[in-house]
Amino acid sequence: MNKMIQYGFSVLFFMMIIVPSYAKDNMDKAISDAAKDITGNCKEEMIVAIDDFETPSKKMTMYIREELADSIFAEDSSVQIVTREHMDKIEKELRFQNSGVVSEKTMISVADRLGAQVIIFGKLEVYDKSYSLRVKMIDVKTGSYVFRKTYDFNESEKVKKLLGTSQIKRGYTTSVGLFAEVDKDSLDYFLPEIGLRIDYGQEVSIGLMIPVVYDFNEGKNELQKAKILGTLRCYFFPFNVDPSSGLYAEVQWGITLSFTTPQMWAGSETGVGAGFRFTVESVYIEPYVCYVYPSLYYFGISAGMRY
Q1: 16 or 28: which carries more pLDDT confidence?
Q2: Rounded percentage of the chain residues whose pLDDT exceeds 70
Q3: Measured between alpha carbons, how far is 186 from 70 in angstroms, rounded to an integer?
Q4: By the number of CB atoms within 10 A of the CB, which of 81, 170, 248, 254 ranks highest?
Q5: CA 67: distance to chain centroid?
């Protein structure tokens, strides 16, 4: 049983470290990769014009333009960047339109008048829940392509918000995760716990917790507990505009099965607690504390996925 506890803590640690890195928004990574490739084709102190990318929304167009400019500057601060604001001052006919469609010839002409050596532009193509960012880089003097490449990424809540298609109120409703706790079962010692929890709901959710407890303080008569607890949770002050996140209060009630040698007995457990759920897309991590009867209190951390 002791090995099982250690294994459970190891799995939880893996989820806490590895899963958040998996959840990093890969649209930003696509833009960052594009910036690296662009600077790799730039000479020192080159003047680069960034035109607006063609996307389905104004917010997305502005985001790609600004994020790409920031990423290029972060890669090579010697590169001088001019964007659509500078271009509009010269060419009034290139007023921003939602589609952002302008001819390559016109863009090259404007970039040349700004003194830019290359111009960068492109298009975001949408395929159900995946996206392709097409990036093009043209030599202003020759009109030939210096660089062109496509960067693919998947849908995320951030992408949906920028495109104006976010359905967060009808978003994640179910979460499944592992948890590890330290239970103050008496005045003399703490008990380690690991388990599985499932929640359903958003602002208010119901759930199920199934922890397993290893009591190493019982000497020869090792005591192993298993609990089945129902939960009712209410969220306050959502984190990152996500209704099933942020500060929450929770009540618990259920049964405790205590295994002894040679007998087993059952009891009940009631508790009230609070915690804070951090979310990154479909991943959550939450620290929490709970006061319970007939035990004293426990604190722990949970991590898992949302669906």
Answers
A1: 28
A2: 77
A3: 55
A4: 248
A5: 18
Closest CA to 300 of 273, 271, 270: 273
Provide CB contacts within 8 A for 253, sequence distance 6+. Answer: 229, 230, 268, 269, 270, 271
Helix, strand, coil shares of the chain, percent, nearest 5, are 25, 45, 30
**Mean pLDDT value of segment 60-71:** 92
Contact 300, 181 (CB under 8 A): yes
Residues 107-132: what's their mean pLDDT?
85
> Are residues 176 and 282 in contact, defined by beta-carbon separation less than 8 angstroms?
no
C-alpha dist (Å) from residue 15 to 11, 115, 217, 239, 247: 6, 51, 29, 20, 21
Beta-carbon contacts of residue 170 (< 8 Å; ≥ 6 apart): none
Condensed to tens digits (0 to 9), the pLDDT of residues 66-89 reads 999 999 999 998 999 887 666 666
Record the tokens describing residue 104, joined without a space: 């390559």
Residue 206 phi/psi, 5-degree rounding, is -115, 155
C-alpha to C-alpha distance for 108 and 116, rounded to whole angstroms: 9
Residue 125 to residue 102: CA distance in whole angstroms: 17
Taking Cα atoms as reference points, which of 249, 223, 224, 254 lies closest to residue 235? Answer: 249
pTM over 0.70? The answer is no
Mean pLDDT, the chain, whole residue set: 81
Amino acid in position 109: S
